[in-house]
Amino acid sequence: MIKVIAVDDEQNWLIAISNLLNKEDDIRVVGTADSKESAVKLIKDNLSFDVILMDISLSSNKYDGIEAALEIKELKKDAKIIMLTSFEEKELIIDSFTAGAVKYVKKTDYKTIADEIREVYNEKSSYKAYELLIADFSKLKKEEQLKDLTSAEKEVFELLEKGYTRSEIQEKLIKTENTIKTQIRNILKKLGVKNSKEAVRKVQTKGILEKKKYKSDNG
């Protein structure tokens, strides 16, 4: 039995898609959520699932579903997420894949959702192709964000990303305190963030959250 979590801010849609999927012999909807927070909570509560159906837009800003996907992938790296959308904006679809989704399906194609779930669950060849493309794309996005850093700064950032403290980085790289301080300061300035935690978060989320904030601030 393939266990599915469905996430959408429209209750009528949640009920309809749950009823549709539960008619399948091999699929069961084991949980539903209507917001980013409630979706992430299901994962934190260790609800057992195989595939998540995630609406791209859980609010008026169009990015909550993508942000939820990012947070879920941070909690469970192997989570298989299919994004549902009423939009056809190329940027939103690209950001969905960047966030870690493995497929997207238009809501108007709801009749194909069961088959899409099976394909992702069974990791068929087309799914594997998506997975490889997404991995390559994520690597390129990371390189793009770190392009202004020197090789020495990139080395420091990699250690920050792994959770090393400043003193641990000093010891590992055999550098002075002032050198590490200067390199971290340069990293923060180039990435446009206030601290190391924000730097790591920005790169790990591939700049999507900053894009969301920019759009919110600029209407």
UniProtKB/TrEMBL annotation:
Residues 3-122 form the Response regulatory domain. One of its GO terms (biological process) is regulation of DNA-templated transcription. The modification 4-aspartylphosphate is found at residue 55. The keyword Zinc does not apply. One of its GO terms (molecular function) is DNA binding. CDD domains: LuxR_C_like, REC_NarL-like. It holds the Pfam family GerE. Signal peptide: none annotated. Residues 142-207 form the HTH luxR-type domain. Keywords: DNA-binding, Phosphoprotein, Transcription, Transcription regulation. PANTHER family: TWO-COMPONENT RESPONSE REGULATOR. May play the central regulatory role in sporulation. It may be an element of the effector pathway responsible for the activation of sporulation genes in response to nutritional stress. Spo0A may act in concert with spo0H (a sigma factor) to control the expression of some genes that are critical to the sporulation process. This is Stage 0 sporulation protein A homolog. It comes from Acetivibrio saccincola.
